[in-house]
Amino acid sequence: MDSNRKTAIIVGVLFIIATVAPIVSIVFIESVYDSEYLTAVSANENQLLIGVLLLLTMTTAIVSIPIMMFPVLKKHNETLALGYVGARIFEGFFSTVNIINILSLLSLSREFINAGTPVASHFQTSGALLLSQFDWCSILLDFPFTLSVLVLNYLLYKSRLIPRWLSILGLIGGALWLITTPFRMFGLFPPSLEILAFVIFIQEMIFAAWLIIKGFNSPEITS
Q1: Cα–Cα distances in angstroms (integers) from residue 90 to residues 27, 38, 40, 164, 181, in the given order
Q2: What residue numbers bound the domain in which 163 lies?
Q3: Which of 59, 43, 44 is nearest to 94 (CA)?
Q4: Cβ-contact 18, 38 below 8 angstroms
Q5: How many helices (H) and strands (E) does the chain have?
Q6: Is 61 in a helix, a strand, or coil?
Q7: Gap between the terminal Cα atoms of the chain
Q8: C-alpha distance from residue 147 to each of 42, 88, 105, 113, 140 (Å)
Q9: Maximal C-alpha separation, the chain
Q10: Residue 159 lies in a domain
């Protein structure tokens, strides 16, 4: 098995981890969204920590993917390959900040419980700030994420390392979700339209399966 084949399999597995882990983590961190989160978070501490571990796994996968793919992509356009690495590392940064926000909320919840029946205003203000940071980081990480989707699939389209129809699907999915990001920042995006993210989800799962089963096509070196 040559190095490109091994890389394809590893990258395929990492894409699955990076996509599935955050979806599963929602089940474990749902107490963050509870109306009584100051008590709910502490009461579900073990579940929350499992969710954090899943998010850490996702973040590790996010950062590992471009590092693994760089030797393959740089043969076609080293500048864009470096851009892909940078975008995903930036995405990983926002993901890490989100993990810190969740753990900080857990610490705040513990303090609230240990204080007995305190005046809740201080804790509510701090908790609201952490939840707000969590929501903002969740939106902001979509900028480098969608940028990385567009850069990667453009490179894959030009190099024909995977079928072009699959690269085009990725470009469409990335563009659709990138357009929604500013609207979500201003609260103008109905939750029902989050189904648009399904295009990227489907494309990345097909892409991952393709890499694991088929690997990269014979490269066509481009400038």
Answers
A1: 26, 30, 31, 27, 16
A2: 3-213
A3: 59
A4: no
A5: 8, 0
A6: helix
A7: 27
A8: 36, 9, 30, 42, 12
A9: 67
A10: yes
pLDDT in tens, 150-206: 999 999 999 999 999 999 999 999 999 888 888 888 877 777 677 888 999 999 999
Task: Say if 222 falls within a structural domain.
Answer: no
DSSP one-letter code for 161: S
The count of structural domains within the chain is: 1
161 part of a folded domain: yes
What pTM did the predictor assign? 0.89
Q: At residue 127, what is the residue type?
A: G
HSE, CB side, 13 Å, CA atoms: give it for residue 176.
16
The burial class, CB within 10 Å (0-12 / 13-18 / 19+), for 200 is buried
Q: Which residues contact 39 (CB under 8 A, 6 or more apart)?
A: 109, 112, 113
CB 152 within 8 A of CB 171: no
Q: What is the separation of C-alpha 113 from the centre of its chain, rounded to a whole number of angstroms?
A: 32
Which range (10-24, 79-93, 98-112) has the least confidence? 98-112
Residue 58 belongs to a domain: yes
Mean pLDDT to the nearest integer, 71-82: 94
Q: Are 42 and 109 in contact (CB under 8 A)?
A: yes
Distance CA 72, CA 221 (A): 10
Confidence tier at 221 by pLDDT (50, 70, 90): very low
